[in-house]
Amino acid sequence: MTAPHPLDRPVWSMLTGRQAHLAEGDERAVRIDRGYGIFGAAADTGAEAQAALAALVPGHGEIWIVEGAPWPVPPGTYEVKRAVLAQMVAGGAPPSPPEDDVAILPLGDGDAAEMAALADHARPGPWGPTTHRYGPFFGIRENGRLLAMAGQRMLMPGMAEVSGVSTWADCRGRGYARMLIGHVMREMIACGEQPFLHSYADNTGALALYETLGFRVRREVHMLAIAK
User: Fold this and answer.
1) 164 and 56 in one domain?
2) 50 and 108: one domain?
3) Contacts of 122 (CB under 8 A, 6+ apart)
4) Could you tell me if 42 and 100 lie in one domain?
5) Number of domains composing the chain
6) Is the separation of the CB atoms in 86 and 217 below 8 Å?
7) Three-state SS for 189?
8) Inter-residue contact 217 to 172 (CB < 8 Å)
9) Residues 187-220 as b or e (16 or more Cβ within 10 Å = b)
10) Contact yes or no for 40/30 (Cβ under 8 A)
């Protein structure tokens, strides 16, 4: 019998694998450190695991579950929303650096407030006060202002997720997202990581951009947001 691929259960895989140091919970259910975000997962759909996952939901806030198949709502919680995501994996050589003379700069704790403001504006996905510490993040600045950013989130065996891709609305159309994603991909590949990402399946513009960068849809996965 073939073992399931880690990407079939991405949140469970990250929080019981390479990023277990960020996990709260036990062998029945886990959630990510609340400073990093709101992802969580149960070992299975059995009553004990579902109850353990429900216990990890904060009194005020949500947990987002991402699974290969639609997930049932744990008892004691209610469904906030569901969405279908396209899970994409990059293959082949990374895109070449842009010819434009645009400086791509590393971002860190000193940039956290600007990164959070940009994430709140662009809504690239769940963002918490320490989300920027997931892994390397990079940005483009002009006259000191952070215009766009992209970085890394989930880690799987030999794989890393491109995430946090954000651009201020008045700076879109300049190719910053393409430049930053390409840079993040090259950094990952240089470290022996295969890039992957998740995007809302109905975001056709984003999917088209990712395809030009070498990403191909692996499968659809299902997101369920729950609250108490």
Assistant:
1) no
2) no
3) 165, 166, 167, 168, 169
4) no
5) 2
6) yes
7) helix
8) no
9) bbbeeebebbbbbebeeeebbebbeebbbeeeee
10) yes
Separation of alpha carbons 191 and 89, rounded Å: 16
Inside any domain, residue 19 = yes
In whole angstroms, give the CA distance from residue 81 to residue 218. 23
pTM: 0.94
- Beta bridge partner(s), residue 217: 88
d(CA 60, CA 94): 41
The one-letter code for the residue type at 181 is: I
E-strand ranges in 5-77 read: 23-25, 29-32, 40-42, 63-67
Whether 225 is in a domain gets the answer no
Are the C-beta atoms of residues 213 and 75 closer than 8 Å to each other? no
Residue at 127: amino acid letter:
W
Selection from 202, 137, 196 nearest residue 10 by Cα: 196
Q: 54-63: long-range contacts at Cβ-Cβ below 8 A with a sequence spacing of 24 or more? A: 54/226, 55/29, 56/24, 56/25, 56/29, 56/30, 56/31, 57/226, 57/227, 57/228, 58/34, 58/228, 59/228, 61/227, 62/38, 62/225, 62/226, 62/227, 63/31, 63/38, 63/39, 63/225, 63/226, 63/227
Q: Could you tell me if 55 and 117 lie in one domain?
A: no
Binned at pLDDT 50, 70 and 90, residue 216 comes out as very high
Same domain, 93 and 44: no
Q: In this predicted model, what pLDDT tens digit does every residue of 166-212 receive, in sequence order?
A: 999 999 999 999 999 999 999 999 999 999 999 999 999 999 999 99
